[in-house]
Amino acid sequence: MILPSLYIVVPVILIVVTLFLSFVTVQQGTVAVVTVFGKYRRILTPGLNFKIPFIEVIFKRVSVQNRSVELEFQATTIDQANVFFKAMLLYAVFNPNEETVKNVAFKFVDDRSLMQALVRTIEGSIRGFVATKKQAEVLSLRNEIVGDVKEQIDQTLEGWGYHLIDLQLNDITFDEAIMKSMAQVVASNNLKAAAENEGQALLITKTKAAEAEGNAIKISAEAEKLAAQLRGQGVALFRQEVAKGMSEAAREMQQANLDTSVILFSMWTEAIKQFSENGKGNVIFLDGSADNMQRTMQEMMAMNNLMKTKEIG
């Protein structure tokens, strides 16, 4: 009873195992490389695939997704300055075609060897480019360095089945002594620029102050000129009005048959009164003798006669 059962169960188990081993699942973003007795046979695309059990073997699963790696290395410029780079490398399988996948699967023993060759190739390319430049040029040549590297190694990577997508130089530094000297140069340039700006500001301030002072002097002179004109006109009008008043007073006294010298004497006494009231403590010396008074009256009468002569003329 047991022996017939084994005859039935064992084949069933073998069939189930064979069917189980005949189907394989390949994850999205990867391609499976199949070999037969160690020789390449074909590739399996993502999804459920069929393979011959016990004969076809999955040699390697190749990822076609983007990969990234960080690099840190040193290069020397033509003027013997050490430059330290920190970079990020982004690469991927060139395409999922069969020939490309074969190159990826069989060019290198393992991924470690591939990574070592890839990193050293890029480092050598960057070192070769930097060796032809001076330290002052390196910081401004990020894009040129990346472009030169991609141009040089794209063909090599394509032979390996890969493609360089991007190379980012995240950090470029120099030796401490060089960094210190560069900082001093930047600081001195900033001080120079600040001094130049301060000088320009001071020049503008002085110029504007001089222009303002000149304009103020000009305005003051114009105002003084106008004021002098107005004062002169006022004095002239005052004198004209005084003359008119004296003429009218003299005419009225002549009509009243009175001596016009009384007007002159009255003006003299009013002038003395005005001096005393508005002198503000100043000393005024007047000759109060009879001779001086007579001489003053004669001068005033002579002035009055002269005014009459002008009126008659």
Describe this protein's structure:
This protein is an alpha+beta fold and 313 residues long. The chain contains 8 helices and 8 strands. It is 62% helix and 20% strand. It has a 3-stranded antiparallel β-sheet with strand order 3-2-5, covered by helices on one side. A 3-stranded antiparallel β-sheet has the order 6-7-8. Strand 2 (30-36) and strand 3 (39-44) form a beta hairpin. Helix 3 (111-130) runs antiparallel to helix 5 (142-160). The longest helix has 80 residues, at 176-255. It is rod-shaped.
Low-confidence stretches: none
Mean pLDDT score, rounded?
79
Question: SS-based structural class?
Answer: alpha+beta
What would you say the CATH architecture of the largest domain is? 2-Layer Sandwich
Distance between the termini: 179 Å
| Number of DSSP helical runs | 8
Radius of gyration, rounded?
58 Å
Compute the number of structural domains. 4
| CATH overall fold name of the largest domain | Tetrahydropterin Synthase, Chain A
Order of helical and strand elements:
HEEEEEEEHHHHEHHH
Just give the CATH class of the largest domain: Alpha Beta
Write the layout of secondary structure elements.
Layout: H1 2-22, E1 23-26, E2 30-36, E3 39-44, E4 47-50, E5 56-63, E6 67-76, E7 82-93, H2 98-106, H3 111-130, H4 135-138, H5 142-160, E8 162-174, H6 176-255, H7 261-278, H8 290-312
Antiparallel strand pairs: 1-4, 2-3, 2-5, 6-7, 7-8
Helix pairs in contact: 3-5
